[in-house]
Protein backbone atom coordinates (compact mmCIF):
# COMPACT_ATOMS: atom_id res chain seq x y z
CA UNK A 1 0.00 0.00 0.00
CA UNK A 2 1.25 3.49 -0.82
CA UNK A 3 1.54 5.77 2.21
CA UNK A 4 1.63 9.54 2.51
CA UNK A 5 4.51 11.34 4.22
CA UNK A 6 2.50 11.78 7.43
CA UNK A 7 1.39 8.10 7.44
CA UNK A 8 5.04 7.12 6.99
CA UNK A 9 6.11 9.36 9.88
CA UNK A 10 3.33 7.83 12.02
CA UNK A 11 4.49 4.29 11.20
CA UNK A 12 8.01 5.18 12.36
CA UNK A 13 6.75 6.91 15.50
CA UNK A 14 4.45 4.02 16.43
CA UNK A 15 7.30 1.48 16.46
CA UNK A 16 9.57 0.92 19.47
CA UNK A 17 12.08 -1.47 17.93
CA UNK A 18 13.14 -1.06 14.32
CA UNK A 19 15.56 -2.74 11.94
CA UNK A 20 16.75 -0.67 8.99
CA UNK A 21 18.31 -2.09 5.86
CA UNK A 22 19.09 -0.98 2.30
CA UNK A 23 20.22 -2.51 -0.99
CA UNK A 24 23.19 -4.81 -1.47
CA UNK A 25 26.26 -3.16 -2.99
CA UNK A 26 25.37 -0.17 -0.78
CA UNK A 27 26.23 3.32 -2.00
CA UNK A 28 26.34 6.68 -0.23
CA UNK A 29 22.56 7.01 -0.28
CA UNK A 30 21.91 3.49 1.03
CA UNK A 31 24.43 3.87 3.86
CA UNK A 32 23.67 7.54 4.54
CA UNK A 33 19.91 7.06 4.67
CA UNK A 34 20.20 3.97 6.90
CA UNK A 35 22.50 5.69 9.41
CA UNK A 36 20.70 9.04 9.10
CA UNK A 37 17.32 7.46 9.89
CA UNK A 38 18.96 5.50 12.74
CA UNK A 39 20.19 8.75 14.33
CA UNK A 40 16.82 10.48 13.84
CA UNK A 41 14.92 7.57 15.43
CA UNK A 42 17.42 7.15 18.28
CA UNK A 43 16.89 10.79 19.17
CA UNK A 44 13.22 9.80 19.65
CA UNK A 45 14.34 7.07 22.07
CA UNK A 46 13.79 4.13 19.71
CA UNK A 47 15.74 0.88 19.67
CA UNK A 48 17.27 0.83 16.18
CA UNK A 49 19.51 -1.70 14.42
CA UNK A 50 21.07 -1.10 10.99
CA UNK A 51 21.69 -4.38 9.20
CA UNK A 52 23.34 -4.51 5.75
CA UNK A 53 24.29 -7.69 3.94
CA UNK A 54 27.39 -6.52 2.10
CA UNK A 55 30.79 -4.90 2.42
CA UNK A 56 30.67 -1.23 3.38
CA UNK A 57 33.40 0.74 1.57
CA UNK A 58 35.96 2.09 4.07
CA UNK A 59 35.50 5.70 2.86
CA UNK A 60 32.16 5.75 4.68
CA UNK A 61 33.89 5.25 8.05
CA UNK A 62 33.77 9.04 8.30
CA UNK A 63 30.02 8.70 8.96
CA UNK A 64 28.91 8.62 12.61
CA UNK A 65 27.48 5.19 13.35
CA UNK A 66 29.55 3.37 10.71
CA UNK A 67 30.86 0.97 13.36
CA UNK A 68 27.31 0.24 14.54
CA UNK A 69 26.27 -1.26 11.19
CA UNK A 70 25.58 -4.94 11.69
CA UNK A 71 26.12 -7.54 9.01
CA UNK A 72 23.51 -10.22 8.60
CA UNK A 73 24.56 -13.55 10.04
CA UNK A 74 23.20 -16.72 8.54
CA UNK A 75 20.79 -18.52 10.85
CA UNK A 76 20.23 -15.44 13.02
CA UNK A 77 16.78 -13.93 13.49
CA UNK A 78 16.05 -10.43 14.76
CA UNK A 79 12.55 -9.51 15.91
CA UNK A 80 11.30 -5.93 15.69
CA UNK A 81 8.08 -3.91 15.45
CA UNK A 82 8.94 -2.37 12.10
CA UNK A 83 11.32 -3.44 9.36
CA UNK A 84 12.40 -0.46 7.22
CA UNK A 85 13.84 -1.06 3.74
CA UNK A 86 15.53 1.97 2.18
CA UNK A 87 16.59 3.02 -1.34
CA UNK A 88 15.42 -0.12 -3.16
CA UNK A 89 12.45 -2.36 -3.62
CA UNK A 90 12.42 -5.02 -0.94
CA UNK A 91 13.96 -7.80 -3.07
CA UNK A 92 17.53 -6.44 -3.22
CA UNK A 93 18.54 -6.73 0.44
CA UNK A 94 20.39 -10.03 0.39
CA UNK A 95 20.18 -12.33 3.41
CA UNK A 96 18.70 -9.59 5.61
CA UNK A 97 15.34 -10.66 4.18
CA UNK A 98 15.55 -13.98 6.05
CA UNK A 99 17.18 -12.54 9.20
CA UNK A 100 14.42 -10.10 10.19
CA UNK A 101 10.96 -10.95 11.55
CA UNK A 102 8.49 -8.07 11.85
CA UNK A 103 4.70 -7.65 11.73
CA UNK A 104 5.09 -4.70 9.38
CA UNK A 105 7.49 -3.77 6.56
CA UNK A 106 7.94 -0.14 5.51
CA UNK A 107 9.71 0.54 2.22
CA UNK A 108 11.00 4.10 1.62
CA UNK A 109 12.43 4.81 -1.83
CA UNK A 110 12.94 7.35 -4.60
CA UNK A 111 13.21 4.99 -7.60
CA UNK A 112 10.24 5.35 -9.96
CA UNK A 113 10.80 1.73 -11.06
CA UNK A 114 9.81 0.44 -7.57
CA UNK A 115 6.47 -1.30 -8.23
CA UNK A 116 5.62 -1.87 -4.54
CA UNK A 117 3.46 -4.84 -3.55
CA UNK A 118 0.26 -5.45 -1.61
CA UNK A 119 1.92 -6.96 1.49
CA UNK A 120 4.18 -4.03 2.37
CA UNK A 121 3.80 -0.30 2.93
CA UNK A 122 5.61 1.95 0.46
CA UNK A 123 6.49 5.62 0.63
CA UNK A 124 7.81 6.52 -2.81
CA UNK A 125 8.81 10.03 -3.87
CA UNK A 126 10.59 9.90 -7.22
CA UNK A 127 10.95 13.71 -7.27
CA UNK A 128 13.56 13.43 -4.52
CA UNK A 129 17.17 13.07 -5.66
CA UNK A 130 18.06 10.70 -2.85
CA UNK A 131 16.42 8.56 -0.20
CA UNK A 132 18.39 10.77 2.23
CA UNK A 133 16.31 13.71 0.99
CA UNK A 134 13.15 11.78 1.97
CA UNK A 135 14.58 11.02 5.43
CA UNK A 136 15.19 14.77 5.77
CA UNK A 137 11.49 15.34 4.81
CA UNK A 138 10.46 12.75 7.43
CA UNK A 139 12.58 14.33 10.19
CA UNK A 140 10.82 17.64 9.45
CA UNK A 141 7.43 15.91 9.42
CA UNK A 142 8.19 14.36 12.84
CA UNK A 143 9.53 17.69 14.18
CA UNK A 144 12.87 16.11 15.02
CA UNK A 145 15.85 18.48 15.18
CA UNK A 146 18.49 16.85 12.99
CA UNK A 147 21.68 16.21 14.99
CA UNK A 148 25.15 16.73 13.57
CA UNK A 149 25.53 12.94 13.32
CA UNK A 150 22.29 12.59 11.32
CA UNK A 151 23.21 15.60 9.17
CA UNK A 152 26.58 14.10 8.18
CA UNK A 153 24.89 10.89 7.06
CA UNK A 154 21.97 12.49 5.22
CA UNK A 155 24.18 15.04 3.44
CA UNK A 156 26.30 12.14 2.13
CA UNK A 157 23.41 10.55 0.25
CA UNK A 158 22.35 13.88 -1.23
CA UNK A 159 25.90 14.43 -2.46
CA UNK A 160 26.61 10.98 -3.85
CA UNK A 161 23.24 10.43 -5.61
CA UNK A 162 23.52 13.83 -7.37
CA UNK A 163 27.18 13.41 -8.42
CA UNK A 164 28.00 16.06 -5.82
CA UNK A 165 25.14 18.31 -6.96
CA UNK A 166 25.93 18.14 -10.68
CA UNK A 167 23.14 15.89 -12.06
CA UNK A 168 19.67 16.97 -13.17
CA UNK A 169 18.07 15.32 -10.12
CA UNK A 170 19.55 18.07 -7.90
CA UNK A 171 16.77 20.68 -7.72
CA UNK A 172 16.07 23.62 -5.44
CA UNK A 173 14.64 21.39 -2.69
CA UNK A 174 17.81 19.29 -2.75
CA UNK A 175 20.02 22.35 -2.29
CA UNK A 176 17.75 23.69 0.49
CA UNK A 177 17.93 20.33 2.26
CA UNK A 178 21.72 20.35 1.87
CA UNK A 179 21.94 23.88 3.28
CA UNK A 180 19.77 22.91 6.27
CA UNK A 181 21.96 19.86 6.89
CA UNK A 182 25.09 22.03 6.77
CA UNK A 183 23.44 24.36 9.29
CA UNK A 184 22.84 21.27 11.44
CA UNK A 185 26.55 20.42 11.34
CA UNK A 186 27.25 18.43 8.16
CA UNK A 187 30.77 19.03 6.86
CA UNK A 188 30.74 18.73 3.03
CA UNK A 189 34.52 18.93 2.66
CA UNK A 190 35.14 16.18 5.23
CA UNK A 191 32.68 13.92 3.40
CA UNK A 192 33.94 14.58 -0.13
CA UNK A 193 37.60 14.26 0.89
CA UNK A 194 36.92 10.94 2.65
CA UNK A 195 35.01 9.56 -0.34
CA UNK A 196 37.52 10.55 -3.01
CA UNK A 197 40.43 8.63 -1.41
CA UNK A 198 41.16 5.49 -3.40
CA UNK A 199 43.73 2.74 -3.01
CA UNK A 200 46.50 3.13 -5.62
CA UNK A 201 45.50 -0.20 -7.17
CA UNK A 202 42.02 1.17 -7.93
CA UNK A 203 43.56 4.00 -9.95
CA UNK A 204 45.70 1.45 -11.82
CA UNK A 205 42.57 -0.66 -12.45
CA UNK A 206 40.88 2.46 -13.85
CA UNK A 207 43.80 2.83 -16.27
CA UNK A 208 43.34 -0.78 -17.39
CA UNK A 209 39.58 -0.33 -17.81
CA UNK A 210 39.91 2.93 -19.78
CA UNK A 211 42.47 1.33 -22.09
CA UNK A 212 39.80 -1.13 -23.28
CA UNK A 213 36.60 0.94 -23.52
CA UNK A 214 34.53 0.45 -26.67
CA UNK A 215 32.44 2.95 -28.58
CA UNK A 216 29.29 1.60 -30.26
CA UNK A 217 25.89 2.78 -31.57
CA UNK A 218 27.65 5.18 -33.96
CA UNK A 219 29.66 6.71 -31.13
CA UNK A 220 26.55 7.43 -29.04
CA UNK A 221 27.38 4.72 -26.50
CA UNK A 222 30.54 3.73 -24.66
CA UNK A 223 31.15 0.57 -22.69
CA UNK A 224 33.69 -1.05 -20.41
CA UNK A 225 33.27 -4.82 -20.38
CA UNK A 226 35.15 -6.61 -17.61
CA UNK A 227 35.71 -10.37 -17.78
CA UNK A 228 35.25 -12.56 -14.73
CA UNK A 229 39.04 -12.58 -14.22
CA UNK A 230 39.19 -8.77 -14.25
CA UNK A 231 36.11 -8.38 -12.06
CA UNK A 232 37.53 -10.77 -9.46
CA UNK A 233 40.84 -8.88 -9.43
CA UNK A 234 39.44 -5.34 -9.19
CA UNK A 235 38.38 -4.25 -5.70
CA UNK A 236 36.32 -1.22 -6.75
CA UNK A 237 34.95 -0.37 -10.19
CA UNK A 238 32.45 2.24 -9.02
CA UNK A 239 34.18 5.27 -10.55
CA UNK A 240 34.82 3.79 -14.01
CA UNK A 241 31.50 4.75 -15.59
CA UNK A 242 31.95 8.44 -14.78
CA UNK A 243 35.03 8.56 -17.00
CA UNK A 244 33.29 7.29 -20.14
CA UNK A 245 29.96 9.09 -19.71
CA UNK A 246 31.78 12.39 -20.32
CA UNK A 247 33.04 11.45 -23.82
CA UNK A 248 31.83 13.98 -26.39
CA UNK A 249 28.85 12.58 -28.32
CA UNK A 250 28.21 9.69 -25.90
CA UNK A 251 24.63 9.46 -24.62
CA UNK A 252 24.74 6.08 -22.86
CA UNK A 253 27.65 4.73 -20.83
CA UNK A 254 27.69 1.13 -19.62
CA UNK A 255 29.96 -0.93 -17.39
CA UNK A 256 29.43 -4.68 -17.44
CA UNK A 257 31.16 -6.91 -14.91
CA UNK A 258 31.14 -10.69 -15.09
CA UNK A 259 30.77 -11.83 -11.47
CA UNK A 260 30.17 -15.55 -12.02
CA UNK A 261 30.08 -17.69 -15.19
CA UNK A 262 26.38 -16.84 -15.77
CA UNK A 263 26.01 -13.64 -13.74
CA UNK A 264 26.90 -10.24 -15.22
CA UNK A 265 26.18 -6.95 -13.44
CA UNK A 266 25.31 -3.96 -15.60
CA UNK A 267 25.49 -0.27 -14.66
CA UNK A 268 24.24 2.39 -17.06
CA UNK A 269 24.31 6.19 -17.15
CA UNK A 270 22.83 8.46 -19.81
CA UNK A 271 22.38 12.04 -20.90
CA UNK A 272 19.00 11.58 -22.65
CA UNK A 273 17.96 7.94 -23.08
CA UNK A 274 15.79 6.37 -20.37
CA UNK A 275 18.18 3.65 -19.20
CA UNK A 276 15.75 2.53 -16.46
CA UNK A 277 13.57 1.18 -19.31
CA UNK A 278 16.48 -0.96 -20.53
CA UNK A 279 17.26 -2.15 -16.97
CA UNK A 280 13.61 -3.00 -16.33
CA UNK A 281 13.58 -5.32 -19.37
CA UNK A 282 16.10 -7.47 -17.45
CA UNK A 283 14.40 -7.26 -14.01
CA UNK A 284 16.58 -4.37 -12.89
CA UNK A 285 15.64 -0.77 -12.28
CA UNK A 286 16.86 2.63 -11.25
CA UNK A 287 16.43 6.16 -12.55
CA UNK A 288 16.04 7.60 -16.05
CA UNK A 289 19.73 8.54 -16.19
CA UNK A 290 21.23 5.92 -13.85
CA UNK A 291 20.07 2.32 -13.77
CA UNK A 292 21.31 -1.23 -13.44
CA UNK A 293 20.42 -4.88 -13.82
CA UNK A 294 21.86 -8.38 -13.65
CA UNK A 295 22.09 -10.47 -16.80
CA UNK A 296 22.04 -14.20 -16.06
CA UNK A 297 24.12 -15.30 -19.03
CA UNK A 298 27.77 -15.80 -20.00
CA UNK A 299 30.05 -12.78 -20.48
CA UNK A 300 30.08 -12.63 -24.30
CA UNK A 301 26.30 -13.12 -24.55
CA UNK A 302 25.66 -10.53 -21.86
CA UNK A 303 27.92 -8.07 -23.65
CA UNK A 304 26.16 -8.46 -27.02
CA UNK A 305 22.74 -8.43 -25.33
CA UNK A 306 23.25 -5.14 -23.50
CA UNK A 307 24.97 -3.52 -26.49
CA UNK A 308 22.00 -4.46 -28.71
CA UNK A 309 19.49 -3.18 -26.14
CA UNK A 310 21.32 0.16 -25.83
CA UNK A 311 21.58 0.48 -29.62
CA UNK A 312 17.83 -0.11 -29.91
CA UNK A 313 17.06 2.43 -27.18
CA UNK A 314 19.19 5.07 -28.91
CA UNK A 315 17.86 4.29 -32.40
CA UNK A 316 14.23 4.30 -31.24
CA UNK A 317 14.72 7.36 -29.06
CA UNK A 318 13.61 5.98 -25.68
CA UNK A 319 13.53 9.37 -24.08
CA UNK A 320 11.38 9.83 -20.98
P1 LIG B 1 24.51 1.59 -10.11
O1 LIG B 1 24.84 1.61 -11.54
O2 LIG B 1 25.17 2.73 -9.37
O3 LIG B 1 24.70 0.26 -9.46
O4 LIG B 1 22.95 1.85 -10.01
C1 LIG B 1 22.33 2.96 -10.62
C2 LIG B 1 20.91 3.08 -10.08
O5 LIG B 1 20.14 1.96 -10.50
C3 LIG B 1 20.83 3.09 -8.56
O6 LIG B 1 19.81 3.98 -8.18
C4 LIG B 1 20.51 1.67 -8.22
O7 LIG B 1 19.82 1.58 -7.01
C5 LIG B 1 19.66 1.21 -9.40
N1 LIG B 1 19.92 -0.20 -9.69
C6 LIG B 1 21.12 -0.75 -10.04
N2 LIG B 1 21.01 -2.07 -10.22
C7 LIG B 1 19.72 -2.39 -10.00
C8 LIG B 1 18.98 -3.63 -10.01
O8 LIG B 1 19.50 -4.71 -10.29
N3 LIG B 1 17.66 -3.54 -9.69
C9 LIG B 1 17.06 -2.35 -9.38
N4 LIG B 1 15.75 -2.36 -9.07
N5 LIG B 1 17.71 -1.18 -9.35
C10 LIG B 1 19.03 -1.19 -9.65
MN1 LIG C 1 19.38 6.48 -3.91
Write a structural description.
With 320 residues, the protein is of the alpha/beta class. Helix content is 38%, strand content 20%. It contains twelve helices and 13 strands. The chain has a six-stranded mixed β-sheet. A five-stranded parallel β-sheet has the order 2-1-4-6-7, with helices on one face. Helix 1 (5-14) packs across helix 4 (131-141), helix 2 (28-42) runs antiparallel to helix 5 (148-161) and helix 5 (148-161) runs antiparallel to helix 6. It binds guanosine-5'-monophosphate and manganese (II) ion. The site of manganese (II) ion has 6 residues, from loops.
Short note summarizing the structure:
The protein has 320 residues and is an alpha/beta fold.
Features:
320 residues, six-stranded mixed beta sheet, five-stranded parallel beta sheet, 13 strands, 38% helix, binds guanosine-5'-monophosphate, binds manganese (II) ion
How do the strands and helices of this protein lay out in sequence?
Elements lengths: L4 H10 L2 E6 L5 H15 L4 E4 L27 E2 L2 E5 L9 H4 E2 L2 E6 L11 E4 L6 H11 L6 H14 L10 H12 L4 H9 L3 H11 L3 E3 L4 E6 L1 H6 L6 H5 L7 E9 L2 E8 L4 H7 L3 E2 L3 E6 L3 H17 L5
Parallel strand pairs: 1-2, 1-4, 3-5, 4-6, 6-7, 9-10
Antiparallel strand pairs: 8-9, 10-11, 11-13, 12-13
Helix pairs in contact: 1-4, 2-4, 2-5, 4-5, 5-6
Bound molecules: guanosine-5'-monophosphate and manganese (II) ion.
Strand content: 15-25%
Query: What is the topology, as strand order, of the major beta sheet?
Result: 8-9-10-11-13-12
**Number of continuous helical runs:** 12
Poorly predicted runs: none
Please tell me how large the radius of gyration is: 19 Å
- Biggest sheet record: 6 strands, mixed
**What would you call the shape?**
globular
User: Which ligands does the model contain, each kind named once?
Assistant: guanosine-5'-monophosphate, manganese (II) ion
- The counted number of beta strands is 13
Order of helices and strands: HEHEEEHEEEHHHHHEEHHEEHEEH
Indicate the mean pLDDT.
Answer: 97
Structural class: alpha/beta
Helical fraction:
25-40%
Termini Cα gap: 26 Å
Amino acid sequence: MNLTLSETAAALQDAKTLVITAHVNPDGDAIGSSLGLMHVLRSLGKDVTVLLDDDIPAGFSVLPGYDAIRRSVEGETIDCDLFVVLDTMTDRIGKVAEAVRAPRVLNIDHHHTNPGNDKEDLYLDATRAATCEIIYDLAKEMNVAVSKDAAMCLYTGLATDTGFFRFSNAVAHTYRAAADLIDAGAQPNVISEALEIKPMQTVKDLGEALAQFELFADGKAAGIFLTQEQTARMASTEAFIGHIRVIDGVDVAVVLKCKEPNVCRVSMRSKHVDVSRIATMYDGGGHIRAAGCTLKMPFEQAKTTIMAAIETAIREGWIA
